[in-house]
Amino acid sequence: MLFSFLSSPRPGEIPLLFLPGWGFDSRLIQLFNLFQEETLLVYDSFLDPRNFKNELLSFLENAGCRKVKIVGWSMGANLGLDFSLSSPDRVAVLELVAMRRNWPGHEVSAIRHGIETDLKKYMQGFYRKCFLGCKAAYVEFQEKLQENYLNMLDRDILFSGLDYLENFSLPYQLPEDISVSILHGRKDVIAPVEDRIDFSGANLDIFPHAGHMVLLDRDKLLK
After folding, report:
1. 90-116 residue pLDDT tens
2. Alpha-carbon torsion 95, 101, 105, 106, what sign?
3. What does pTM read for this prediction?
Protein backbone atom coordinates (compact mmCIF):
# COMPACT_ATOMS: atom_id res chain seq x y z
CA MET A 1 0.00 0.00 0.00
CA LEU A 2 1.20 3.49 -0.84
CA PHE A 3 -0.91 5.12 1.88
CA SER A 4 -0.46 5.07 5.65
CA PHE A 5 -1.72 6.78 8.79
CA LEU A 6 0.81 8.84 10.74
CA SER A 7 -1.26 8.04 13.81
CA SER A 8 -4.19 5.67 14.30
CA PRO A 9 -7.58 7.34 13.87
CA ARG A 10 -9.96 7.17 16.80
CA PRO A 11 -13.40 5.54 16.30
CA GLY A 12 -15.65 7.83 14.27
CA GLU A 13 -12.84 10.28 13.50
CA ILE A 14 -12.41 11.58 9.95
CA PRO A 15 -8.69 11.66 9.07
CA LEU A 16 -7.06 14.34 6.94
CA LEU A 17 -5.44 13.20 3.71
CA PHE A 18 -2.66 15.51 2.50
CA LEU A 19 -1.86 15.37 -1.22
CA PRO A 20 1.37 17.24 -2.03
CA GLY A 21 2.28 18.93 -5.30
CA TRP A 22 4.29 17.72 -8.27
CA GLY A 23 7.89 16.97 -7.29
CA PHE A 24 7.13 16.99 -3.54
CA ASP A 25 6.10 14.40 -0.98
CA SER A 26 4.40 14.31 2.40
CA ARG A 27 7.58 14.98 4.37
CA LEU A 28 6.57 18.63 4.11
CA ILE A 29 4.20 17.89 6.99
CA GLN A 30 6.97 17.15 9.47
CA LEU A 31 9.33 19.78 8.08
CA PHE A 32 6.87 22.64 8.54
CA ASN A 33 4.69 21.21 11.35
CA LEU A 34 1.57 21.24 9.20
CA PHE A 35 -1.91 20.07 10.24
CA GLN A 36 -1.23 19.89 13.95
CA GLU A 37 -3.85 18.05 15.99
CA GLU A 38 -5.15 16.24 12.89
CA THR A 39 -5.05 12.49 12.37
CA LEU A 40 -3.13 12.31 9.13
CA LEU A 41 -3.28 9.97 6.17
CA VAL A 42 -0.42 10.35 3.69
CA TYR A 43 0.87 9.01 0.39
CA ASP A 44 4.24 7.37 1.05
CA SER A 45 6.06 8.51 -2.08
CA PHE A 46 6.02 11.22 -4.71
CA LEU A 47 2.47 11.40 -6.06
CA ASP A 48 1.84 9.34 -9.19
CA PRO A 49 -1.58 9.98 -10.79
CA ARG A 50 -1.61 6.55 -12.42
CA ASN A 51 -4.09 4.34 -10.51
CA PHE A 52 -4.19 6.91 -7.70
CA LYS A 53 -7.96 6.76 -7.23
CA ASN A 54 -8.10 2.95 -7.21
CA GLU A 55 -5.22 2.73 -4.75
CA LEU A 56 -6.86 5.22 -2.39
CA LEU A 57 -10.23 3.49 -2.55
CA SER A 58 -8.59 0.15 -1.86
CA PHE A 59 -6.74 1.54 1.15
CA LEU A 60 -9.86 3.16 2.61
CA GLU A 61 -11.81 -0.09 2.20
CA ASN A 62 -9.09 -2.17 3.87
CA ALA A 63 -8.68 0.36 6.67
CA GLY A 64 -12.41 0.58 7.31
CA CYS A 65 -12.26 4.33 6.78
CA ARG A 66 -15.55 5.68 5.41
CA LYS A 67 -14.61 9.33 4.78
CA VAL A 68 -11.58 11.61 4.62
CA LYS A 69 -10.91 15.31 4.66
CA ILE A 70 -8.63 16.21 1.76
CA VAL A 71 -6.10 19.04 1.58
CA GLY A 72 -4.61 19.04 -1.90
CA TRP A 73 -1.78 21.40 -2.78
CA SER A 74 -0.89 22.20 -6.39
CA MET A 75 -1.17 18.93 -8.39
CA GLY A 76 -2.46 17.32 -5.21
CA ALA A 77 -5.47 19.63 -5.44
CA ASN A 78 -6.24 18.32 -8.93
CA LEU A 79 -6.06 14.75 -7.66
CA GLY A 80 -8.18 15.59 -4.63
CA LEU A 81 -10.85 17.19 -6.81
CA ASP A 82 -10.83 14.22 -9.19
CA PHE A 83 -11.25 11.78 -6.32
CA SER A 84 -14.06 13.87 -4.82
CA LEU A 85 -15.92 13.83 -8.13
CA SER A 86 -15.57 10.10 -8.62
CA SER A 87 -16.20 9.12 -4.97
CA PRO A 88 -18.14 11.99 -3.34
CA ASP A 89 -19.43 9.71 -0.58
CA ARG A 90 -15.84 9.28 0.63
CA VAL A 91 -15.01 12.97 1.09
CA ALA A 92 -16.25 15.24 3.88
CA VAL A 93 -14.10 18.33 3.26
CA LEU A 94 -12.02 19.42 0.28
CA GLU A 95 -9.38 22.15 0.36
CA LEU A 96 -7.85 23.15 -2.98
CA VAL A 97 -4.60 25.01 -2.37
CA ALA A 98 -2.65 26.79 -5.15
CA MET A 99 -4.50 24.92 -7.88
CA ARG A 100 -4.14 26.12 -11.45
CA ARG A 101 -7.10 26.04 -13.85
CA ASN A 102 -5.07 24.45 -16.65
CA TRP A 103 -1.51 23.84 -17.83
CA PRO A 104 -0.91 24.90 -21.46
CA GLY A 105 0.87 22.36 -23.63
CA HIS A 106 3.80 24.65 -24.44
CA GLU A 107 4.56 25.12 -20.72
CA VAL A 108 4.41 21.40 -20.05
CA SER A 109 6.68 20.77 -23.05
CA ALA A 110 9.22 23.26 -21.69
CA ILE A 111 9.19 21.49 -18.31
CA ARG A 112 9.71 18.11 -19.97
CA HIS A 113 12.63 19.54 -21.94
CA GLY A 114 14.18 20.94 -18.76
CA ILE A 115 13.95 17.58 -17.03
CA GLU A 116 15.36 15.70 -20.01
CA THR A 117 18.26 18.17 -20.32
CA ASP A 118 19.27 18.34 -16.64
CA LEU A 119 16.80 17.00 -14.09
CA LYS A 120 18.59 18.25 -10.97
CA LYS A 121 19.23 21.74 -12.33
CA TYR A 122 15.65 22.12 -13.52
CA MET A 123 14.13 20.91 -10.25
CA GLN A 124 16.39 23.18 -8.18
CA GLY A 125 15.01 26.13 -10.13
CA PHE A 126 11.47 24.82 -9.75
CA TYR A 127 11.79 24.49 -5.98
CA ARG A 128 13.22 28.01 -5.74
CA LYS A 129 10.16 29.40 -7.58
CA CYS A 130 7.81 27.44 -5.31
CA PHE A 131 9.34 29.06 -2.23
CA LEU A 132 9.48 32.65 -3.51
CA GLY A 133 8.42 34.91 -0.65
CA CYS A 134 9.26 32.22 1.95
CA LYS A 135 13.00 32.66 2.43
CA ALA A 136 13.30 30.98 5.82
CA ALA A 137 11.16 28.02 4.75
CA TYR A 138 13.19 27.67 1.55
CA VAL A 139 16.47 27.56 3.49
CA GLU A 140 15.02 24.88 5.75
CA PHE A 141 13.82 22.89 2.74
CA GLN A 142 17.24 23.16 1.09
CA GLU A 143 19.03 22.02 4.24
CA LYS A 144 16.76 19.12 5.14
CA LEU A 145 14.98 17.80 2.05
CA GLN A 146 16.14 19.18 -1.29
CA GLU A 147 19.22 16.99 -1.82
CA ASN A 148 17.30 13.88 -0.87
CA TYR A 149 14.52 14.87 -3.27
CA LEU A 150 16.97 15.43 -6.11
CA ASN A 151 18.48 11.98 -5.56
CA MET A 152 15.14 10.21 -5.30
CA LEU A 153 13.06 11.83 -8.04
CA ASP A 154 11.75 9.37 -10.61
CA ARG A 155 11.49 10.66 -14.20
CA ASP A 156 8.57 8.35 -14.95
CA ILE A 157 6.58 9.72 -12.02
CA LEU A 158 7.44 13.32 -12.95
CA PHE A 159 6.37 12.73 -16.55
CA SER A 160 3.22 10.94 -15.39
CA GLY A 161 2.33 14.03 -13.36
CA LEU A 162 2.96 16.31 -16.32
CA ASP A 163 0.76 14.16 -18.57
CA TYR A 164 -1.98 14.30 -15.95
CA LEU A 165 -1.80 18.08 -15.56
CA GLU A 166 -1.71 18.71 -19.30
CA ASN A 167 -4.82 16.56 -19.86
CA PHE A 168 -6.73 17.66 -16.76
CA SER A 169 -10.20 19.07 -17.45
CA LEU A 170 -11.79 21.34 -14.88
CA PRO A 171 -15.34 20.18 -14.03
CA TYR A 172 -18.31 22.44 -14.54
CA GLN A 173 -19.35 22.19 -10.91
CA LEU A 174 -18.09 20.99 -7.57
CA PRO A 175 -19.15 17.77 -5.85
CA GLU A 176 -22.41 18.12 -3.99
CA ASP A 177 -22.57 17.80 -0.21
CA ILE A 178 -18.83 18.46 0.22
CA SER A 179 -17.50 21.56 1.98
CA VAL A 180 -15.01 23.12 -0.47
CA SER A 181 -12.41 25.82 0.22
CA ILE A 182 -9.96 27.42 -2.23
CA LEU A 183 -6.69 29.03 -1.09
CA HIS A 184 -4.35 30.93 -3.38
CA GLY A 185 -1.38 33.28 -3.14
CA ARG A 186 -1.55 36.50 -5.12
CA LYS A 187 2.20 36.33 -5.83
CA ASP A 188 2.20 32.72 -7.04
CA VAL A 189 4.45 32.32 -10.10
CA ILE A 190 3.79 28.58 -10.52
CA ALA A 191 0.00 28.91 -10.55
CA PRO A 192 -0.58 32.62 -11.30
CA VAL A 193 -3.53 34.13 -9.47
CA GLU A 194 -5.25 35.00 -12.75
CA ASP A 195 -5.24 31.27 -13.56
CA ARG A 196 -6.71 30.20 -10.23
CA ILE A 197 -9.86 28.15 -9.93
CA ASP A 198 -13.01 29.86 -8.64
CA PHE A 199 -16.14 27.78 -8.20
CA SER A 200 -19.52 29.11 -7.18
CA GLY A 201 -20.35 27.91 -3.70
CA ALA A 202 -16.73 27.44 -2.62
CA ASN A 203 -15.07 29.58 0.02
CA LEU A 204 -12.21 31.53 -1.60
CA ASP A 205 -9.26 33.05 0.29
CA ILE A 206 -6.49 34.89 -1.55
CA PHE A 207 -3.39 35.74 0.49
CA PRO A 208 -1.99 39.03 -0.85
CA HIS A 209 1.67 38.39 0.05
CA ALA A 210 1.87 34.62 -0.50
CA GLY A 211 3.28 32.67 -3.42
CA HIS A 212 2.92 29.00 -4.35
CA MET A 213 3.74 27.98 -0.79
CA VAL A 214 0.49 29.53 0.42
CA LEU A 215 0.08 26.11 2.03
CA LEU A 216 2.26 27.44 4.86
CA ASP A 217 -0.25 30.26 5.46
CA ARG A 218 -3.20 27.90 5.78
CA ASP A 219 -3.06 27.69 9.57
CA LYS A 220 -3.64 31.44 9.81
CA LEU A 221 -7.24 30.83 8.71
CA LEU A 222 -7.77 28.35 11.52
CA LYS A 223 -6.67 30.60 14.40
Report:
1. 999 999 999 999 999 999 999 999 999
2. negative
3. 0.96
